[in-house]
Amino acid sequence: MQIPFLDLKRFDLDLKKSLQVKFTTMLEEGFFSGGKEVTDLESTIKAKLESNYAIAVANGTDAIEIALRALQIGPGDEVIVPALTWVSTAEAVVVVGAKPVFWDTDQDGLLASDWDRAITSKTKAVIPVHLYGKMVDMELLIAQAKDHQLFVIEDAAQAFGSAKNGRAAGTWGEIGCLSFYPTKNLGALGEAGMCLTQDSNLEERIRLLINHGQPRRDEHSLIGRNSRIDTLQAGFLNVMLDRFGEFQVIRKRQAKRYLDELASIEDLDLPIGILELDHNAHLFAIQTERRDELQVFLREKGIGTLIHYPKILPEMGIFNSTEKFPKANKIAVNGLSLSLNPFLSDQEQEYIIGQIFTFFKK
Ligand SMILES: Cc1ncc(COP(=O)(O)O)c(C=O)c1O
Predict the structure, then answer these.
(1) CA of 168 to the centre of ligand 1 (A)
(2) Does the predicted model carry a pTM greater than 0.90?
């Protein structure tokens, strides 16, 4: 059996057909930038996440960069970020001229709650990352940030659909950033992202920043850039949104099955809280000291896995950091993501579980 970690060729026929119909309609309408698909996407997500404002942008990395610019963070400023995350979180900070200050994670890969010890007189913001889809304790983090008058930019790129106490990931901080990269729970057929905010002034600034600082055609009130969403991607996302709830049910069912069936393996740490509402089951990341061996074994059995992420950001050499972050590093060394997605069959999941048992019995 060959089981890729995620195979986006496996969209079901209904989904393929709906996407094709959408493409044909859009081709006939001739609107390829802005327009109704974009406003529909923004209003659907605004309503779904109960966010005052939702601004579609070109991708999730831009969403973070635009958020930093909207909050006027730049040279001389420091921004606290977790040591374990996708590179974009810290990269965007460097792109706007500020300095990422890394802090360790907890054992699940979320920014450790004593992050406030990293605050200096230069700190302007903190970026909690809802890694693997699990939300950081936002009540606590927001209270800590308030005490020090810091902005909170939520990196909710992996957490579309997660919510705590009825409040969606991305709607807690000054600005929340979403990614609709194709592999995400809500994925486009290309690049796309979104900024969420509850503040009308920030919304206005974000809209200016993503469109050349242009409030009206040929009027430019600040230096912005082009980070508008591609209309085709907005149209495809509107189709994908119709299936989101159904796909989430499958993800949670698969997560439960892994949890139930792998629980008896002593050498394996399973993700905590993945069945809760504040986790969207984006990734099923296990931890084992035999990670590399297990990955090779599964690969030989035709099973694809991925590592999120094999190196913590401070160790990449590009961020000029020499500090050590033992908890984040442990995940980089021991973490392995098992296939979990709406296109994985029950039979395939059974095979993956069976092979993991075979490995640990050896
Ligand atoms: C945690 C995190 N932050 C930011 C991003 C950036 O999103 P994008 O790939 O849409 O630029 C991603 C997605 O890849 C991510 O997983």
Answers:
(1) 18
(2) yes
